[in-house]
Amino acid sequence: MKSYRKELWFNVPGRRGFINITPQVLRCLDESGIREGFALVNAMHITASVFINDDEQGLLQDYEEWLEKLAPHEPTSQYRHNLTGEDNGDAHIKRQVMGREVVVAITEGRLDFGPWEQIFYGEFDGRRRKRVLVKIIGE
Ligand code: ZN
Prior knowledge:
The chain is an alpha+beta fold. It has helices at residues 22-32, 57-70, 89-98; strands at residues 2-10, 17-20, 37-43, 48-53, 101-107, 110-111, 118-123, 130-138. The strands form 2 sheets. Strands 1-8-3-5-6 form a 5-stranded antiparallel sheet, with helices on one face. It has a 3-stranded antiparallel sheet with strand order 2-7-4. Strand 5 (101-107) and strand 6 (110-111) form a beta hairpin. The longest helix has 14 residues, at 57-70. It is elongated, with a radius of gyration of 16 Å. The protein binds zinc ion (ZN). Zinc ion binds at residues 81, 86, 88, 92.
């Protein structure tokens, strides 16, 4: 069995943002040389997510608005977590809702997606460098 590991770095200039990272994951798959197996892609930070959905601008804006209704950033005093001196209580909750990781089957050297599936990095407390782990195993 072959094993491949890579860290992808992102620096979202605003507090929140969504990035389609499918091209980077495809590059990892090419580098790995793995034809049959699984790819795990996970955020390495507890205020960011990796998820799969449609790369459609309206939908991404809907996520942003829905998450902000669910866990508004302001007022920051509404979160007990922020009593630690941080201001990212909302970001931890948004990450929990959108998830930590995805697993994608690798078949014949490609990501075995359903129609329209794309891999996204979801940032909820940006303006700093953060990592995503790509781990691919198989043969
Ligand atoms: Zn925090």
